[in-house]
Amino acid sequence: MADPLKRPGNAGGFLVAVSLLAGTVIGLIVGQPSIGFLVGLAVGSAAAVAMWLKDRR
After folding, report:
1. Predicted pLDDT at 41
2. Cα–Cα distance, 30 to 56 (Å, whole number)
3. Which of 8, 9, 26, 36 has the fewest CB atoms within 10 Å around its CB?
4. pLDDT beyond 70 at 29
5. How many CB atoms lie within 10 A of CB 43?
6. What angle (nearest 5°) sits at the alpha carbon of residue 43, between those of residues 45 and 46?
């Protein structure tokens, strides 16, 4: 049974999705949508992992 005093975890997938979209849009503006997508993926993944590490405590 789950501990009733423990607060629910945060959703890091939202950060990944938003950063993917933002990276792609910025990449389209600059003329490099693929690189923007990859940068957005990296930034979003790093933010999600950081949120997960902070939430683990």
Report:
1. 95
2. 37
3. 8
4. yes
5. 17
6. 40
Distance CA 51, CA 41 (A): 15
pTM score, two decimals?
A: 0.78
| Amino acid identity, position 38 | L
Question: Taking the CB of residue 20, how many other CB atoms lie within 10 A of it?
Answer: 19
* Predicted pLDDT of residue 47: 92
Question: What DSSP assignment string belongs to 1-57?
Answer: ---TTSPPPP--HHHHHHHHHHHHHHHHHHT-HHHHHHHHHHHHHHHHHHHHHHHH-
